[in-house]
Amino acid sequence: MKPGTGGDAIGSVDGYKLRSTSPALNNGSVISGNGGRDHWANPLSTTTKPHRGAYNGPGV
User: Fold this and answer.
1) How far apart are CA 59 and CA 8, in angstroms?
2) For residue 7, what are the CA distances in angstroms to 16, 26, 31, 39, 58?
């Protein structure tokens, strides 16, 4: 996986998943009505801070 890379297809953006050492982990803002899932179908909480960006799964 190459950080910050992606292509034209919806499944080609794994380069935007956060690394386990990223300062963006658990550093986002809680948003009501957030849709409940991120781009990769990971759950989004309405009470705890999410990660910043489109990825809310475990750090890779």
Assistant:
1) 24
2) 11, 26, 28, 15, 22
CA 43 to chain CA centroid, nearest Å? 10
- 17: tokens are 């998943």
- The position carrying tokens 């190459």 is 2
Instruction: Concatenate the DSSP letters of all residues of 13-24 into one string.
Output: -GGGSPPTT-TT
What confidence tens digit (pLDDT) does each residue in 19-30 have? 999 999 999 999
Tracing tokens 């475990």 back to the chain, one arrives at 58
Does the pTM surpass 0.85? The reply is no
Residue with tokens 């948003």: 31
For residue 9 the two structure tokens come to: 């297809």
